[in-house]
Amino acid sequence: MRKTTLLTLAALLLIAGGAAAFFARAYVGDLGLVRDLSRAFMEDLQFKDFRSSKLYSHPLDQDRLDIGRTLERLFLAKPEFVDIKDFELVRAEKDSTGRRAKVLVRTRYKLLNKDQDLREGELILYWILRHPQCPLGGECAPQGRCIDEGGALMHPPDPEADKQSRAKPPPQLAADAAPRTEDTYACNSADPPRWFMNLDSTLKEKDYH
After folding, report:
1. The pLDDT value given to residue 114
2. What is the Cα gyration radius of the chain?
3. For the segment 9-26, what is each residue's pLDDT rounded down to a tens digit?
4. Cβ neighbours of residue 125 under 8 Å, at least 6 residues apart?
5. CB distance 138 to 184 below 8 Å
6. Do 132 and 194 contact (CB within 8 A), yes or no?
């Protein structure tokens, strides 16, 4: 019985070690994971699960995303009239840093009440490795705060100050300086970076956080 228990524990440790190795490899730029995420995202679009399709984007960006509107702009039709029949992941690439990737997707779809035949279209899904608690371009410092490329602490924007600056920009405020709060972004430095989608890289309307 004791021998069986030890063998079971050994097997579990091997499985856990294999899983850890997989995720470590995935987080540093594995295109296989990017493909899997792209396939899952497209399936969410295919079945109009817009709530789930938001979850591929960074948590700091999810509240400003309107997947239905993005889909409308991609296909030039209201989401309820777009019937995605199938899709194919044509090509996946990453850049020289291994922190950015893109996937070319070819779709076949029909516009309901309009098309008799299927249409074909292509779109590119952009992905980036980011810390799950830090804004775009930020890293998690050992002290548990997000810092930018220059090592400065990163501050959330102040919505009220932002409204006031848009209404009447103060002369001392530089054009590229966003109003911010005294708070900083907290993070867990033990959390590895993860792949997140930049769906609106080609349809950008609002600033990233």
Report:
1. 87
2. 22
3. 333 333 334 434 433 443
4. 38, 41, 42, 102, 103, 105, 197, 199
5. no
6. yes
- As given in the structure block, the two tokens for residue 61 are 């960006």
- Measure the CA–CA gap between 95 and 126, rounded to whole angstroms: 11
User: What average pLDDT score do residues 140-165 get?
Assistant: 84
Phi/psi for 19 (5° steps) reads -65, -40
Higher pLDDT, 161 or 133: 133
Taking the C-alpha atoms of residue 145 and residue 185, their distance in angstroms, rounded to an integer, is 6
CB 183 within 8 A of CB 156: yes
Q: Is the pLDDT of residue 203 over 80?
A: no
pTM of the model: 0.73
Retrieve residue 189's tokens: 């430095």
The DSSP-derived string for 91-144 is EEEE-TTSSEEEEEEEEEEEETTT-SS-EEEEEEEEEEEE-TTS-TT-EE-TTS
Average pLDDT, the chain: 79
Angle, CA 144 vertex, CA 201 and CA 33 arms, to 5°: 40
Backbone angles phi, psi at 15, to 5 degrees: -65, -45
Rounded-to-integer distance, Cα 150 and Cα 143, Å = 16
